[in-house]
Fold each of these.
Amino acid sequence: MTSPIIEASQKHPKPEDKTFGYGTAGFRMKANLLDSVVFRVGLLAALRSQKLNGKTIGVMITASHNVPEDNGVKLVDPMGEMLEASWEAYATSLANAQNEEELVARYEHLISSLKINTSTPAHVILAKDTRESGPALVTALTDALTSVGAKYDDYGILTTPQLHYLVRCLNTQHPPHTEPYGEPTEEGYYKKIGSAYAKLLQGKPRPGPITVDCANGVGAPKLKALAEYIGKEIFDVKIVNDLVDQPSKLNYQCGADFVKTQQRLPPASQVSPLARCASLDGDADRLVYYFADSDGTFRLLDGDKIATLVASFITDLVKSAGISDLKVGVVQTAYANGSSTAYITKTLGLPVICTPTGVKHLHHAATKFDCGVYFEANGHGTVVFSHAAHTTIASHSPESPAQASALENLRALVDLINEAVGDALSDLLLVEVILAHKRWGPKEWDSTYTDLPNRLVRVEVKDRTAFKTTDAERKLVEPAGVQEKIDSLVGKYKQGRAFARASGTEDAVRVYSEAAERGEAEELARLVADVVV
Ligand code: NG1
Ligand code: ZN
């Protein structure tokens, strides 16, 4: 059993002086360092499947919004969630074994300590984004899977959320699941969300054209396929930044991360005032909207604006359907604009939970609600429905035609939403539907509340591990004394708020600030940055 692993692993040697860590987004780095890591992730994926009695595990090869030279790999658990946290350490342990012998020893240690029956057939599905380094990394992965006799299916190029969807579909085909999540094919994905969209738009004004910047990544061909499935009459999308055959253009001057951090239009987008625009990131799991105001000012509608729109719509729909016992709530991180939090609690009257950065934390917290809406400010998020919500929505009896129609819409909404993970394509259709129902353009949506001026800066420090936080990363406990200094600075600004935390994906500390005036928010960020260096 072990010699095939050694033989296969010799083709994917570990770079000597590197230490790898499974972070918030899996392993992510320069693609030329990733070969051995992906091979070892393959071994772990097979073990994870065996540990879970042969359930299907997903492996996605992508580096999302990172530069084209980077790549990454992450594992998807059976219901389409991120890998269970305790297994991240096993991934790190395999990735850092210095040689083949150590790798096999660690692999066997996992088998015995986790009591894994290796005669259980393993099943893994895999996909990649459009990066040039993808195909070679897939070979590393399949070499590993072959060496341990795991069965695998390579789905080629997909968006990250499509792979999560497929994993969930494949694992819900059999009892105890009463109904599969959807057809386990790419086509099945378009069918499920596309028909839900069409249903929700019945009798509603047809949305006008929307321009979508696809970051020159996988979102471009997939959005085209989705748009073809739905049809131009009800989904009139103009796709820009779709140069997937020019890998160096990926995420360059475009994409959701560019728009959110630069707070401006991607240069390739030529749009008329008040026209709806959106950007996806490089693997199509983030979405932000924006528009140019009548005077040309750029207006961003970020993850917070999407979360508030979705939460208000679901609340209304649940109420209109005559359902009274489902709890709707919103999950955010410390990066959510203070105005959005105030709007959710005061205007919408909904509870808000704040979690540390990273969607796995938000997702987990969202399961505490019946309809849990979660979004990071950068546009990554979705809605999760509890078991009770699914049952109630499926079985509720309406008492009037109005209730019946709201209930139909609620059912279609559940189909439209990719519960497994934040999904830019599904979220895009969701926002389009809500705007059509509310008869809103981007300006009406934007005017629900006004963002407090804010600033996010990246600070290079000697050792970011020295920064330890509490209270959902809003307060520093270490280094000693720093939080007191931040507090005293914050106290000097009207509506001031600021925090510093170590990034989980980059070697830096991030400082975020808000204040009543733009200049003050910027000054506060600068002063806090001075305190942390
Ligand atoms: P870090 O580098 O830990 O701040 C960033 C984003 C997160 C999340 C992760 C994973 C910000 C401020 N941080 O995390 O929201 O998306 O990357 O990709 O946007
Ligand atoms: Zn992404």
Note: Residues 304 and 340 are 6 Å apart (CA to CA).
Amino acid sequence: PDVVNKIAAGEIIVAPVHALKELIENAVDAGSTSLEILVKDGGLKLLQITDNGSGIQKEDLAILCERHTTSKISSFDDLASIGTYGFRGEALASISHIAHLTVTTKTKDSSLAWRAYYIDGKLAPPKPGQSAEPKGVAGRPGTQITVEDLFYSIPTRRRAFRSTADEFNKIIEMVGRYAIHCDGVGFTCKKAGESSNSLSIQAQATVNDRIRQIYGSAVANELISFDVSDSRWGFRADGFASNANYNIKKTTFLLFINHRSVESSVIKKALEQTYASFLPKGGHPFIYLNLAIDPARVDVNVHPTKREVHFLNEDEVIQEICKHIETKLAAVDT
Ligand code: ADP
Ligand code: MG
């Protein structure tokens, strides 16, 4: 069964960025306003994320990394309407099967922080001969998750990573996506051993500031905002997109569905088509699209290895969004 768990975990988490994405979502779900991320060797040696959110109760630590342990579903009805496709209490469990996982956490009414170490879903001693029980330590309110030696238990996977620089680039790109999306939350991301941050966004920065700092002024100066909804199809879409004065060789498409960063090649293609009549041949847009869809309409049974999300009346929703953006583009002076 342990081999099965490792294989399953390795399918959910294919690269370090997939583990980090889950950890960012957990920190944001816990109400954090500050996320500090530390990365070593493209996340293969170390991924550490420190937040200032709710923290985890000491009593919950023993089962934290068992599969299906989640504080986010309390009834069967919740399960039907939950907006977190694929992963339901599986992220930390998966990580504990393929990495060394340490959790240090403090709730605001606990006098101590508690540190626990996990292997294969269970509390484990940090060193042979030590106790597996959570240990009281000094610390600030919030949670620090430390993931070390990712894929140590799947050596063929571990060896398949050629370039830690590529993995770091994927990480920085993902942190940037969440930094743009999570209004009111500050983010830093740093490579271990370097003195300055690779990315740093203040909690009070506006969305435009965030886009400017991450993608540059050329695009931030040429943005239109949009906001469109339709109760027939149970959606609302808002965000920012470049106008006809900006174009780049490859589309930048930041898509969030119900606050999770996901991919949709169908939506991307439709938007590129909308832009084609406004941009010179070969020119592509920047689009940050925040899509809220009635959770009952989202396909939650998508296998977790699939990063693409589908929902009911996809064609109608896409058409409404494209039509709205087209009107906005047509109204911009070029
Ligand atoms: P899920 O997010 O689907 O509930 P996870 O495996 O990602 O499953 O996390 C399991 C549980 O651990 C969460 O439901 C939450 O209660 C707790 N948790 C994880 N990370 C944090 C965090 N940074 N702050 C507070 N609680 C957390
Ligand atoms: Mg989670």
Note: The chain has a mean pLDDT of 92.
